[in-house]
Design goal:
6 strands; 734 residues; two-stranded antiparallel sheet; 3% strand; 5 domains; mainly alpha
């Protein structure tokens, strides 16, 4: 059969298959192993996203233009999603439409049915959010692909190293890729398995075709990885052994050097985007908080949910996406994040989630006490400086009816302090609403809600990394001296010693060191436990690498065990190459840390000190301004009553301006406190992503520390400043 006849038969078969299955494209074959591995790795939210896209495509089928469809399909293939470009487009339009219709119904339609006044602002805000949401929803596959590339990129140096190390003693690219797939962690291991399985399921006729198709997806973002893989491919056709080894070494050298150059440029170009993020996420919002009390005081129509929508929804989301955009440009680094995250058994009877739930829920219930007391009886409050003849008084605060002007005329400090605020309707008519709480004690109670949220989230992440960090510290100490220890082990193997004896010999000459303890543990497992070398290192219970969770150590031992199957001399050569690789990694990592030290330290200072400090001072200023304006409104009203009807008209006009606004200090502090917690959370993730890449353990450890310290700093400072500035306000208005 000629090639033309074969192609003609293939096309007719695919056309018949499409017609039978009623699909636009022929189904893509996957091995059962690949599907199982994919379903285990991809998180549940992505599976939900796939289902939503599939359902949306059935309800609202729309096809993007050819150029956009090609870009979407490329991103979908990169992150292994089971969706179509049409499904992504349909979901990006259908979800915002449903959101807009839901907002219109709940904020305008339902209140009209019930005969109450709806919120045009919330309806408009929902509509604007829905329209804006179209663009990020269309970009979800691109965000996922960027995240996938970031995680996979951090493993590429290790991937090239595995392939090169294997091919130094066995010149078989298919076996080398399979070796890398078995020893890498997800997501790059999924890509390597996909290359082999596409060949096994006959999607491609040769390994070169399958590999080249995969590399095309990295040509624009990681050209050094593509170049290194091509050098590895070229080693297969070299005429001499010397030239073959030279091509392999060159591929690893290209990967290391190019990655180093890209990280240098990334570190230099990082200051501009971070400055923009700092201004939009911290400086401008904080400056807005300073003038916001004056704005809401002269605009009684402004309510707390208006500020909440801006500060606790819009700004954190904006900061998060700006941060994600910065992380998406981060090139691959030198080491994969440690994947060993097994926690040691703890005697704690409660889970971290339960503890966080109790802390957040308990502090929340305490924080809403002012709202509950007002809802239970709006004619009850506590005030200081009132004349009640000594009845119902505790610590100078006496129970009063807040609407009894004669009884509360001399009140200086309140528990709740709700105020009547004049609101002007669209038709020019006026109505009076009750706004608050403005009281100093209610404001202090509101501090408990962000405190509980910060402590709950911080303690949750701290407990999730409990025990792991100590093991990591030991592993980091081992990494620092592991290169020289591996070099000595390689020399012992070069002398012809078996691997079992070489471990004990090296541990004997490295007393009182972490690497000596590691090799001694391997030797002990062999001699006393009767384990093989592989089990002595990787056993689930007794393995030495379980005590030192580091991918550098684990990958080095995997290379050693695999190369030892070819003999001690090949194992010696492989392990000495590993030693040189670790030394190079350590040298470059230290240089990169030095380059990014200024940026990282600046962001950490923002998280730990500047943001909570500025916000705490702003809350104190807000409390003082609101108290002064509220008292001025009362004084103006009294002046109007004393000066007669004409003066009363002027006073009534001024009363609306000096009412202190319809946003109680309680709500104002709550909004700012939650904003501080959200901002610290987002910036902690961003700093860890810049510094460590996609390292979940380091991210949780950072959140565990920053959330507790920053929240406590804000709460303590806000508590002191609120008390101090309220005393100042009370002395001013007397």
């Amino acid at each position: 059969m000629s090639k033309d006849d074969y192609e003609d038969m293939r096309k007719r078969y695919l056309a018949k298959l499409r017609e039978t299955l009623q699909e636009d494209e022929a189904p893509e074959l996957h091995s059962r192993q690949y599907e199982e591995f994919r379903s285990e790795y991809l998180p549940k939210p992505l599976s939900l996203y796939e289902k939503l896209c599939g359902a949306s495509e059935k309800i609202f089928s729309i096809a993007p233009d050819a150029k956009k469809k090609e870009a979407l399909q490329k991103a979908i293939d990169t992150c292994h999603l089971q969706v179509t470009p049409g499904g992504v487009t349909a979901f990006s339009l259908l979800a915002p439409i449903l959101l807009i219709l839901t907002g219109l119904f709940f904020f305008l339609g339902l209140p009209m049915i019930l005969g109450t006044t709806g919120s045009f602002f919330l309806a408009l805000y929902t509509a604007i959010v829905g329209m804006i949401l179209v663009f990020p929803l269309q970009k979800i596959p691109f965000f996922l692909a960027a995240s996938w590339r970031l995680k996979a990129g951090n493993q590429m140096v290790l991937c090239i190293f595995y392939i090169v190390t294997y091919m130094r003693h066995t010149s078989n690219l298919e076996l080398a890729i399979d070796f890398a797939a078995e020893h890498l962690s997800a997501p790059l291991s999924l890509d390597m398995k996909k290359i082999i399985w596409d060949l096994a399921t006959e999607k491609y006729e040769s390994l070169k075709e399958s590999l080249d198709t995969y590399l095309d997806g990295w040509r624009d973002t990681n050209s050094e990885f593509v170049e290194s893989m091509h050098l590895i491919e070229s080693s297969l056709v070299e005429s001499s052994e010397e030239r073959r080894i030279e091509a392999l070494d060159k591929s690893l050298s290209v990967m290391l050097d190019e990655t180093y150059e890209k990280m240098l440029h990334y570190a230099h170009n990082l200051k501009g985007p971070l400055t923009t993020l700092h201004m939009l996420g911290i400086i401008l919002p904080i400056l807005g908080l300073v003038i916001l009390p004056l704005l809401v005081s002269f605009m009684p129509e402004a309510r707390w949910y208006h500020i909440f929508a801006l500060y606790n929804v819009t700004l954190p989301v904006l900061v998060y996406f700006l941060g994600k955009n910065i992380l998406s440009t981060r090139p691959s680094s030198y080491g994969d994040a440690d994947q060993i995250t097994d926690q040691p058994k703890s005697n704690m009877k409660v889970t971290p989630f339960f503890l966080a739930f109790v802390v957040i829920g308990g502090f929340f219930l305490l924080g809403i006490i002012p709202l509950l007391t007002h809802a239970a009886n709006d004619h009850w409050d506590l005030a200081r400086g009132v004349d009640t003849e000594g009845k119902n008084c505790v610590f100078g605060f006496c129970a009063v009816d807040p609407w009894d002007k004669e009884q509360t005329a001399g009140a200086s400090y309140w528990f709740n302090e709700y105020r009547e605020v004049v609101m002007t309707e669209a038709d020019g008519s006026e109505r009076v609403i009750v706004a608050g709480p403005f009281g100093i004690l209610a404001t202090l109670f509101s501090l408990l809600i962000p405190l509980g949220l910060g402590l709950g989230i911080g303690w949750y992440h701290k407990l999730k990394t409990r025990g792991i960090l100590e093991k990591r510290k030991q592993a980091k100490k081992l990494e620092l001296e592991f290169a020289s220890a591996l070099f000595q082990l390689g020399n012992r193997l070069a002398d012809g010693l078996p691997l079992e004896i070489a471990f004990s010999k090296v541990s004997a000459v490295l007393p009182d060191t972490v690497s000596g303890a590691f090799f001694q543990l391997v030797s002990t497992n062999i001699t006393r436990q009767g384990l093989s070398v592989e089990d002595a290192i990787f056993h689930e219970k007794f393995g030495a690498v379980r005590q030192y969770p580091s991918n550098i150590i684990e990958s080095s031992m995997k290379v050693l065990v695999e190369s030892a199957k070819k003999g001690p001399l090949i194992a010696s050569q492989a392990i000495i190459n590993v030693s040189n690789y670790i030394k190079e990694m350590h040298r470059v990592d230290e240089r990169l840390k030095d380059l990014m030290a200024d940026v990282i330290s600046s962001m950490k200072s923002q998280i730990k000190f500047l943001t909570p400090t500025i916000a705490g001072i702003v809350i104190g200023i807000t409390s003082m301004i609101t108290a002064i304006l509220g008292k001025l409104g009362t004084k103006v009203a009294e002046l109007g009553e004393q000066t007669g009807e004409a003066g009363g008209g002027v006073a009534t006009g001024l009363l609306g301006s000096f009412s202190g606004g319809a946003v109680g200090t309680y709500w104002f502090q709550l909004i700012v406190g939650l904003y501080v917690v959200e901002l610290v959370f987002v910036l902690s993730i961003l700093v860890n992503g810049i510094e460590n890449g996609p390292d979940k353990v380091a991210e949780r450890a950072s959140l565990g520390i920053n959330m507790v310290k920053s929240t406590v700093t804000y709460i303590l400072l806000a508590f002191v400043v609120i008390l101090l500035f309220n005393f100042v306000a009370a002395s001013i208005v007397q």
